[in-house]
User: What shape does this take?
Amino acid sequence: MGSQYEPLTPETLGGRLAQIGAITDRLGTDPASWTVREVGDGNLNLVFIVEGGGDSVIVKQALPYVRLVGDSWPLPLKRAFFEYHALTRQAARDPGSVPEIFHFDEEQALIVMERLHPHIILRQQMMAGEKVKDLGKVLGAFAARTAFRGSDLSMSAPDRKADVALFAGNVELCDITENLVFTDPYFNAELNRHTPELDGIVAELRADIDLKIAAQHLKRAFAARSETLCHGDLHTGSAMVTADEVRVIDPEFAFYGPLGFDVGMLIGNYLMAYYAMPGHIADEAAQSDYKHWLLDVVAETWETFREEFSTLWRTERNGMLYPAALYEDQGQGFAAEQALQELLHEIFCDLLGFAGVEMHRRILGLAHIAELDEIEDTALRAACETKALRLGRHLAVNRAGFAGMDAVIAMARAIDEGDGR
Assistant: This one.
């Protein structure tokens, strides 16, 4: 391909990529025989399925603007660079969890990768009321392994500092999170949108001093605590699934941040899906069963994260933090366990806060979630969203007061049943 950037189209893709061995080795050398479909349904990028020769690949290309808004919101192409580097690190830290990369072209902001098939986006599976085997175990382990192995608990100090410097360049996508997640939902920002029936609770939340202070404390943690390489946008649209397999995609928002950020955003999305189910499953018994399963996934995700993180602490704690020389080597393994439990408590409090603000921004900000947005009955949608907003407020403001995930789940149920505020 030439060095001058040019967005691909289904008509031009074959001619422009026909010299890339990663594609021709799989699809054949005659691009006229390929089938190309543009399937991108996200907010930022072009995504193509390219089929030929009995095989297929995904071609993903960044656009120089936010696709959801248009060219009035420019965005640098270098986000593909950060996505590529995040995928390579995630593949090393949790093998098999992300698509295999076949080719990367930095100047064209283009990644050719494994097509996950017959996988579908997790949120589509949830809206259809279909369960996924071991969902919480797989994503909880992914969040724990990438958090631990991307931190000073595991990496050498020079390697981690070099990685922090590399990902510090993902300025514009971090700016999106800093504004759209932590700030815009709490005032009348230009790009905000919400279901009209929410006007009352929106005014209430924007007048809530404790909530706005909590959101900014969390924003400060996001901006200042470069603890590990985070996926940056881990939610029900960032996983592709079958009934019994889960893979993680789309880490273009990758940055170095708090250990509890990814798992918190993920759990916030589970909880929004829980409240959205009345808009997708009409049968009351089936709806109740699925909602129960979703709360089990919340518990399983955190329990798996906690167990996997603890295992890695005990077996791979080779970085500069909490060295064995201070604990185990002096016969004080119990002290290392105490430090672990204190760190896990800190991560738990953080994840609740991040879950809470994620629930707010997906209802009040620019980028919503299909689980709620596709409920056509606006009164029903607003009722579901109100419950999520109430829980989000509790999680953000009272994050240090929850004894464990069972207490969070009890609060979620109480709000769903009208017994909590």
About this structure: The mean pLDDT is 96.
